[in-house]
């Protein structure tokens, strides 16, 4: 049995290696950069962060040495393990590469490139939030269309869809997002920050992220750079 699993793992990793073209790698990297920018824009808006980043923010207050990037890596690694369990495919361990890279990019943009950037007007906050709202799912969608392992949260969503044999992407993503918000509130309450970065923007993001990913993937499909595969 162990030999069979080893053979299967090798075949899955070879399949991933066969997909490593310059175009796919470039698109994948752009997707991660877009996510890093989106997080940095949204965190400064004070309108509300994405559900996952609300959780990351709560963790930075619950654990003294935790940064947004490190919190992202922690929750993403846990989500990666859940994805592996749902798919029963160890090849998804390669998601550790985008996990670490995205965490570093978030810290790069949030702590350095956007350090000192302040929103002083109401429209700055609104523009920053809207930018993050559209950029985060765009970054995830760019990673998905490469057919390489997607951003871990997007891949987890796809794993849940696969396990449930469902094509209701927006609905499943909304359920996941709301669950994460509840977990963020629990940790935030323990850490003494209550709702933390939770706001009306968090609710909007939780309800819209699945819709936006579906929209982006539909656009990419229509222009011929993505082929959606229905679950049987």
From TrEMBL:
<protein>
    <recommendedName>
        <fullName>YitT family protein</fullName>
    </recommendedName>
</protein>
<feature type="transmembrane region" description="Helical">
    <location>
        <begin position="126"/>
        <end position="153"/>
    </location>
</feature>
<dbReference type="InterPro" id="IPR038750">
    <property type="entry name" value="YczE/YyaS-like"/>
</dbReference>
<feature type="transmembrane region" description="Helical">
    <location>
        <begin position="174"/>
        <end position="194"/>
    </location>
</feature>
<keyword id="KW-1133">Transmembrane helix</keyword>
<feature type="transmembrane region" description="Helical">
    <location>
        <begin position="21"/>
        <end position="43"/>
    </location>
</feature>
<feature type="transmembrane region" description="Helical">
    <location>
        <begin position="200"/>
        <end position="220"/>
    </location>
</feature>
<keyword id="KW-0472">Membrane</keyword>
<feature type="transmembrane region" description="Helical">
    <location>
        <begin position="92"/>
        <end position="114"/>
    </location>
</feature>
<feature type="transmembrane region" description="Helical">
    <location>
        <begin position="63"/>
        <end position="85"/>
    </location>
</feature>
<keyword id="KW-0812">Transmembrane</keyword>
<dbReference type="Pfam" id="PF19700">
    <property type="entry name" value="DUF6198"/>
</dbReference>
């Amino acid at each position: 049995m162990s030999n069979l699993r080893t053979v299967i793992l090798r075949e899955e990793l070879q399949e991933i290696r066969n997909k490593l073209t310059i175009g796919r790698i470039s698109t994948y990297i752009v997707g991660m950069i877009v996510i890093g920018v989106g997080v940095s824009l949204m965190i400064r808006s004070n309108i509300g962060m994405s559900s996952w980043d609300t959780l990351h923010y709560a963790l930075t207050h619950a654990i003294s040495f935790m940064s947004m990037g490190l919190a992202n890596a922690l929750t993403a690694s846990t989500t990666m393990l859940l994805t592996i369990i749902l798919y029963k495919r160890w090849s998804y361990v390669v998601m550790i590469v985008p996990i670490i890279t995205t965490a570093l990019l978030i810290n790069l943009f949030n702590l350095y490139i956007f350090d000192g950037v302040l929103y002083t007007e109401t429209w700055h906050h609104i523009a920053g939030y809207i930018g993050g709202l559209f950029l985060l799912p765009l970054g995830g969608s760019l990673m998905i269309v490469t057919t390489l392992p997607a951003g871990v949260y997007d891949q987890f969503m796809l794993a849940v869809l696969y396990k449930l044999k469902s094509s209701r992407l927006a609905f499943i993503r909304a359920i996941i997002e709301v669950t994460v918000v509840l977990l963020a509130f629990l940790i935030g309450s323990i850490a003494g920050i209550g709702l933390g970065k939770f706001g009306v923007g968090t609710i909007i993001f939780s309800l819209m992220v699945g819709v936006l990913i579906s929209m982006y993937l539909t656009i990419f499909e229509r222009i011929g750079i993505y082929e959606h595969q229905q679950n049987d």
